[in-house]
Write a structure and sequence with these properties.
The chain is an alpha+beta fold and about 300 residues long. Helices cover about 35% and strands about 30% of the residues. The strands form four sheets. The chain has a five-stranded antiparallel sheet, sandwiched between helices. Strands 2-1-6-7 form a four-stranded parallel sheet. Strands 8-11-9-10 form a four-stranded antiparallel sheet, sandwiched between helices. A hairpin with a 2-residue loop joins β12 and β13. The protein is globular. The structure holds adenosine-5'-diphosphate and magnesium ion. Adenosine-5'-diphosphate binds next to β9, β11, β15 and β16.
Length: about 300
């Protein structure tokens, strides 16, 4: 069996190397495939995918990254070619589901309509709407619609700041995504799901800062299902609702309402921090899951 690992980067990331190592331990071959090198053809009604003009001989693929800051057209091409590939072999995560997961609005909408708890959220291109929303909710988080690592997320308390920020974003051709600010107890949770079960979970703790991404300096601390059974259950349900095979689910408690909310579902999660905090390498579970799909 051979599994392709698809990424846009020229160098191998830590997670790619973990996947390659886990595969070789399970006697599975791997090939590193750069997404920009994939082409697709319609030939006499048949759909074919090639890599640098040669046929791919892989039984499945794991999608690890499609690029950052690319144009809409490049993004669409990459996802379109990956969807062509997914018609032939299992691609994990499914490209169409990955597109939805990458968009914070679409994924929260899908979670909410599946009855899962998400914070009140709003998306707009109108600075007046942003101003009124901030005035109404008091404290809001403005996030990039397709961001990660906590980069670019900002706490906005002043309706005029919201107006200014959204006016600037709109003039740059960018939407504004606002979410009610949750008063967290100094940490949030990252729960890693593969298939229909949790393989590892951690608390992300930070003092004096509201962003608890490991990339923002938070430290991880392993948790188990008996510590946070509700979070483990919600994470599995979120991954199912978004039709993903694996994901890193972010959840947070709100001290004000006592509620637990799903913040986002990462379909291309990093796991360096999780591995360090929990001693669990998700790669071996992902490889096993993909191999099971091929054998089915
Ligand atoms: N509505 C919110 N209220 C309070 N903290 C939030 C809220 N949304 C996100 N955060 C915090 O900001 C950080 C990044 O949020 P997240 O939505 O996961 O985006 P990213 O894709 O950048 O990781 C996390 O530490 C999370 O706990
Ligand atoms: Mg996150």
């Amino acid at each position: 069996m051979k599994i392709g690992i698809i990424h846009y980067r020229s160098t191998l990331s830590e997670s790619t190397m973990d996947l390659m190592k886990a595969a070789s331990e399970q006697n599975i071959e791997t090939e590193y495939i750069r997404v920009q090198g994939l082409d697709s053809y319609i030939k006499g009604g048949d759909i074919v995918v090639k890599y640098h003009d040669r046929d791919l001989d892989i039984d499945a693929a794991i999608l690890r990254g499609v690029g950052m800051f690319m144009s809409l057209e490049v993004f669409m091409k990459r996802m379109g070619v990956l969807e062509a590939l997914a018609r032939k072999i299992p691609v994990v995560n499914d490209p169409a589901s990955s597109v939805i997961a990458r968009d914070k609005w679409r994924s929260l909408m899908q979670l909410a309509s599946s009855g899962l708890p998400v914070p009140d959220t709003m998306v707009t291109e109108n600075p007046f709407t942003a101003m009124r929303y901030t005035a109404r909710v008091g404290r809001a988080v403005l996030k990039p619609l397709m961001g990660s690592l906590g980069l670019g997320s900002a706490l906005v308390e002043d309706p005029d700041i919201a107006f200014q920020l959204s006016r600037g974003l709109t003039s740059m051709g960018l939407p504004s995504y606002y979410q009610v600010f949750l008063d967290k107890p100094g940490f949030d949770l990252r729960v890693f799901v593969v298939g229909d079960r949790v393989v590892a979970g951690m608390k992300r703790i930070i003092e004096g800062k509201w962003k608890t991404n490991i990339a923002q300096g938070a430290r991880g601390e392993a948790i188990s299902e008996s510590d946070y059974p509700e979070a483990f259950k919600l994470a599995v349900e979120a991954v199912k609702a978004l039709k993903l095979d694996y994901a890193g689910v972010d959840l947070a408690f709100d001290k004000k309402t006592g509620g637990l909310f799903i913040l986002e579902v990462n379909a291309f999660p990093q796991w360096h921090g999780l591995k360090q905090a929990t001693g669990v390498d998700p790669a071996k579970f992902i490889i096993r899951h993909v191999a099971d799909k091929v054998r089915k």
